[in-house]
């Protein structure tokens, strides 16, 4: 007799699936980072999977392979609606049917018309299907950037900056290392390892000579390195560290924000780490989809601010954001914010 999974059982399984999806971030683009858990007929975890790099199996297939025969009569818990298209790996909906899964619970429907329809296929075959389980956690977590790209056709842009309590990104003498503590810097590197590209301006390269790599706490390079993108009309030195062989680098000779994003069309998750002028340009163009603001408990009283001209001249014209979360990281605060006005999915 099949075990009826409780709401708590399914919630716990989805949390594991979300964790698996997070572990896949950075390795799956342009495909979504998906996590899946298979429970056997008795409600025990039989398999856990995550999306493999492009051309590899999807999360459901990985979890089903781990579960083996234990999947028959069991339940699948997935962060994204199982796909229904015949790509390089075949439809996950059919893989679930072939494995004998009798129930599927997923968080978010697939907005991609080429892949959607898996839920309908499963229901037609008699599988018990529900959606919406921890949907907000998935939409704000591992699928945030991918869903944005599906809905807008543009890469998702997160502007990350560090500043003092009085909004300074550097001291009056130009020094900025280090405003934040080591814990915050370690977090930045962990986040970089999940991204497709990091964007800076030529001014940042000339001023700071950054490597823009994702590094482990011991200083070694992370397994995944985002593409380094340098924007601007000026030249950078041939020996700039951003040109070394630790990660690919793309030089874009433009100041136009939409030209930059068009050049990055193949990428999903982009981090903006440029200086105040580049940040201002992206903000003025309405192309900042999320902000990660690291605030250090320091006051400098003078020095450059984190953002320059952003096309705002009155309080009424201010660009408004709302908090999603506030974290304490060592001595610093990390504020995560999104635009206060809902994104128009049909905007170009």
UniProtKB/TrEMBL annotation:
Residues 8-119 form the CMP/dCMP-type deaminase domain. Pfam families: dCMP_cyt_deam_1, RibD_C. InterPro entries: APOBEC/CMP_deaminase_Zn-bd, CMP_dCMP_dom, Cytidine_deaminase-like, DHFR-like_dom_sf, Eubact_RibD, RibDG_C, Riboflavin_Biosynth_HTPR. Binds 1 zinc ion. It catalyses: 5-amino-6-(5-phospho-D-ribitylamino)uracil + NADP(+) = 5-amino-6-(5-phospho-D-ribosylamino)uracil + NADPH + H(+); 2,5-diamino-6-hydroxy-4-(5-phosphoribosylamino)-pyrimidine + H2O + H(+) = 5-amino-6-(5-phospho-D-ribosylamino)uracil + NH4(+). SUPFAM superfamilies: Cytidine deaminase-like, Dihydrofolate reductase-like. Keywords: Hydrolase, Metal-binding, Multifunctional enzyme, NADP, Oxidoreductase, Riboflavin biosynthesis, Zinc. Substrate binds at residues 176, 192, 212, 215, 273. Gene3D superfamilies: Cytidine Deaminase, domain 2, Dihydrofolate Reductase, subunit A. Its EC number is 3.5.4.26, 1.1.1.193. Zn(2+) binds at residues 58, 83, 92. One of its GO terms (biological process) is riboflavin biosynthetic process. Converts 2,5-diamino-6-(ribosylamino)-4(3h)-pyrimidinone 5'-phosphate into 5-amino-6-(ribosylamino)-2,4(1h,3h)-pyrimidinedione 5'-phosphate. This is Riboflavin biosynthesis protein RibD. The gene is ribD.
């Amino acid at each position: 007799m099949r075990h009826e999974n409780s709401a708590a059982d399914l919630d716990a399984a989805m949390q594991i699936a979300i964790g698996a999806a997070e572990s896949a971030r950075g390795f799956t683009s342009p495909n979504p980072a998906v996590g899946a858990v298979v429970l056997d007929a008795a409600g025990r975890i039989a398999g856990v999977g995550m999306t493999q790099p492009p051309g590899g199996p999807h999360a459901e297939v990985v979890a089903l392979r781990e579960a083996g025969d234990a999947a028959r009569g069991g339940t699948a818990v997935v962060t994204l609606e199982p796909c229904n298209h015949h790509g390089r790996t075949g439809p996950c909906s059919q893989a679930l049917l072939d494995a004998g899964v009798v129930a599927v619970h997923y968080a978010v429907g697939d907005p991609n018309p080429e892949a959607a329809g898996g839920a309908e296929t499963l229901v037609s075959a008699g599988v018990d299907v529900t959606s919406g389980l921890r949907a907000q956690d998935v939409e704000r977590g591992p699928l945030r950037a991918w869903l944005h790209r599906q809905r807008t056709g543009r890469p998702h842009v997160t502007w990350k900056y560090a500043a003092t309590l009085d909004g300074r990104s550097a001291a009056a003498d130009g020094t900025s290392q280090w405003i934040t503590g080591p814990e915050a810097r370690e977090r930045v590197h962990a986040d970089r390892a999940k991204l497709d590209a990091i964007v800076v301006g030529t001014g940042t390269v000339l001023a700071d000579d950054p490597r823009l790599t994702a590094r482990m706490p011991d200083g070694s390079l992370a397994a995944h390195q985002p593409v380094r993108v340098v924007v601007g009309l000026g030249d950078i030195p041939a020996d700039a560290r951003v040109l070394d062989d630790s990660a690919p680098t793309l030089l874009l000779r433009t100041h136009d924000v939409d030209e930059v994003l068009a050049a990055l069309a193949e990428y999903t998750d982009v981090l903006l780490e440029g200086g105040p002028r580049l940040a201002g340009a992206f903000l003025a163009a309405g192309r900042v989809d999320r902000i990660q603001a690291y605030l250090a408990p320091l006051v400098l009283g003078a020095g450059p601010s984190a953002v320059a001209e952003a096309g705002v001249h009155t309080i009424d014209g201010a660009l408004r954001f709302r908090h999603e979360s506030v974290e304490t990281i060592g001595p610093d605060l990390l504020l995560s914010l999104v635009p206060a006005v809902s994104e128009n999915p049909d905007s170009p």
